## 1
Amino acid sequence: MTQTYTPERMDSLRLLGDPLADSVVAALFERGEIGRFNTLMRWFAQSGRPLPDDVPEEARAYLEATSMPPSWVDWGQIEKARLFFIDNNVHISTALSFAAMPACYVVPHVARLLTATHSLAYPSKRMAETGQFIFYLMRPDAFEAGGRFLPAAQKVRLLHASIRHHLRREGRWDEEELGVPICQEDMIGGQMMFSVQVLDALHRMGIHMSNEGAEAYFYAWRVVGAILGIELDAMPADLDQAREFSDRYMARHMGPSEEGALLTKQLIDLYEEVVPGTFFDPVVAALIRFLIGDTSADWLNVPRTPWDRLITLAPTALGVLESVEDASPFGAWALDRLGELTFRLELSSLTRGRVMQYAIPESLKSDYGLASAKPRTDRWTPPPPVL
């Protein structure tokens, strides 16, 4: 189906939430069962395992109904996406942290939503949950019995519904002005930030990507969107439609805000703590500015540093490594292993070895093997902006 994202179509998506998850959360709060449900869900972490006997009735029906991926999934595309991730894991992690997350913060109402939610006020928890979610998604067993991705996605969907519930109940959200909290438009907007905008950031960093790999990576996030409650006929079907939606969404909503600046400062402070010593601390701000551009960086009060010019040399350096990877299967294997280790170390530092539970707030690469040795030709480059 060909999508045309007119202002009227975008406006209509602001009025829609996620009725299935919303009804479950409403029932759990009405019966005072959130605490018991969260306790039970700590033991429900892998697909294919029986649910605890005393899971509330509505929650059991939801968990059973959402326990399988969509029937239309192309598993060949999912495997291509996994190989793409193996090939680019450390770069994708960088793009997610320093481009996708700031892109969320540069949308004022999204930044306001994040700061209004107690459990999302801590950047280490927020980044740890995001990193763990993507790690589960890109494992070979993500959608199989014993995999951890689907249970995590089920919990994230309920988490989003609980945020809608709290903001509405406490009168902390102007739906007439802002639409439904975490509405369909914003869910698709987030899907674009974690897919096509990540691809844009990889291109800006000088990473070599094939059209096939880029399309498969986007496809995986299309599957994720459906699992998280985005209506299939509303979300972009391919990268061209994704480009249109992403550009129109950002043009409609991006701008400066105090909340966005606060969240960005938290993000910079977090990663300055992760980076050993203090000499390289300014690299964090410089990388964000390089990936999102001066206008957005200024809106978010990203400080200017002496590293701002040096960071522009990064694509050249990464291009050399990419050429080695393109030319040598052993080089590709070694760099993939290094990328896996780096990704794991970053995730470990953020989670501090804990499993993130994605609980409903009561108030506000293991051994992946070798990547495909297929030469990376037919390089992907971003299409021109729609607007």
Note: Residues 10-351 form one domain.
## 2
Amino acid sequence: MNFNIRGAVIQNIQHMDNSELTGLIEDSITQGEEKLLPGLGVLFEVIWKNSDPSEQQHMIQTLHNKIQK
């Protein structure tokens, strides 16, 4: 079985307004369900690909500072 997660996530969110998208992200994080992680990964990929290098560096620095070693 071959399932295109990226395509499914993009298709599900492409018509959401800002409020709906915010709710989706916050609910996914709050629920903490493992099955929602791939969708959040797709959203991060979209953000990453559409960020300039300084924004990417800021994201990396935030991750580095917030994840406990």
Note: The mean pLDDT is 92.
## 3
Amino acid sequence: MSSNHHQSVMFEKSIEGLNIKNDGIYIDATFGRGGHALGILNKLGEQGQLIAFDQDISAIEYANQHINDTRLTLIHSAFADMHQVLSEQGLLGKIDGILMDLGVSSPQLDNAQRGFSFNADGPLDMRMNQTRGISAAQWLAQADKVEIANVIYAFGEERKSRHIANAIKKFQVDTPLETTLQLANIVSSVVRSQKKKHPATRTFQAIRIFINQELKQLSETLEQTLDVLAPEARLCVISFHSIEDRIVKQFVRKYSKQKQLPKGLPIIDDGIQQTLLRDLGKSFASSEEISANRRSRSAILRIAQRTTKPNV
């Protein structure tokens, strides 16, 4: 096992939050470069298992080259396929913990050829899985300004979304929009620069989320965890912006609310009064971690635990 790996965001708190059992079965839903995965493996005994998902083939190739551990099973797939994969393996209801580290990994951001960065020029791609779907450039070429504006506003919460969409379509009249710096410059011509945030941050975020259907996959996968997790198992989710965190918060709140019934009334299993999760709270990166890794400044870790039986 290689020890040469980057320290993942909120590493200690997320690994601690999983409450790892020696012989447990765990899922790393976003392998990336294996920081969290190695942390989980280091806590597991010989009989423990880790199943890691990643839709980015470069992450799978990295794991195959750098990690040699028979307890690790790699799945080249989006985490939204979790239920299907685990069902085929007979593991539904047997997983002791799931860790989801959302967003883009540092290697993806650092590689200009992936199209995620507004700081380095590269093809305007933005696909997590480059073997599927259309690139950001292809979508921007075929979408009209209303659709572009709606995406930028909904997924980036960018107030100047309509102005940005107009500028994009105006640019495309004479020149194909094909690179990251082209898009970054277009946005910068419309959005005022801020001290700590690039003007194109929200736009790039929005288009990336849309191209990869990230919020839809997140919502679907959270629902799947209810079938996947064993009693008392933990769910740890690290999000990096308010839209993701809101989805996670609402999911936990939905299934951790307890319906109060008057004393003396018979219990009727109507599927509503069941409390399927316990909300174990949220935490943030420490000031020391934020100083060492700027990406952690917006990170929020939420932890929930699967209940053993319905509560009423």
Note: The radius of gyration is 21 Å.
## 4
Amino acid sequence: MESVDCLVVGAGAIGLAAARALAARGREVIVVEATDRIGSGISSRNSEVVHAGLYYPRGSLMARLCVEGRRALYDFCASRHIPHGECGKMIVAASAGEIGELEALRERARGNGVDDVVLLDGAQARALEPGLSCVAALLSPSTGIFDSDAYMRALQGELESLGGVVALKTPALGGAATGERVALDLGGAAPTRLRCKLLVNAAGLAATKLARSVAGLDPALAPRTYLAKGNYFSLVGQKAPFVRLIYPAPVSGGLGVHLTFDLAGAARFGPDVEWVEKEDYVVDPSRAASFYAAIRRYWPDLKDGALQPAFCGLRPKLSPPGAPARDFLILGPGDYGGVGVVSLFGIESPGLTASLAIGEHVADLAQGR
């Protein structure tokens, strides 16, 4: 049986960042990816927003890794010439009853170390964004956007320059943990069993399935995953009059239907929250009706017929519909009785922003920290 030091399953932003961090510490790393390209799962279907760290409970992994990851991500993009922009965003209160939510977000942000947020009244908000309709807004200057595809290519390039390898079309089929090591069965053109000192389960939507398929790992440690589909609609035939990202007050299961831009300036709206039982990447055009209603609360000038189905993504939630949101769940060898496994469950937003910090956290866990 062939052996490797570290085997990472999943070549999305999380898997690549973890692999890069491990390789930078002198570890031998192979990344296996079931599809024919990197970043083809969760990492490819999102709004490409760099989150500041406003929403997450103080002391949570989401809060700490988002703030650390955001700083690292901006530095990484600037030093590698990856397209990005620190455009800022406004979270708006469309009615007086939502102002309390903005005030709570401001205090939560400050508790997370995000000290640049400013609460504006309606007139101050409209002075910055004249097309906006609101009674108040929370301004987050350090929110931005970036090219996630270029970012993941850069991670792959740096991993390979450190001696790491990415193997595409190589699905992980299950395996067994014996002693401190794991043997994993790999499919593809040349099926094999590979033994490793460290297995990093960064399989995204399939993370729970993979964890439960490795004999010798307690299946109770692998939580159930619930799928929240997020649909996006593009703006066509009308130009959005905003220079910042515009978010409503948060809703159950997500951050509300918000306006973001790509780096070319094209506007899109989403995601909403649609709970599904299985993977489904078709946007139902009829969902546009709820989008128009949500968007017009902060942009009443949105024209009929201006929304066109764009794409959708899936978020792996650890809580069912209606239940309080749960934090990232990242388990290490200490949780597995000394077996060399790090598992990442429920890595949804702000996972992309936090990915570099998550990678370092994985590498720390692998060293017993």
Note: The mean pLDDT is 96.
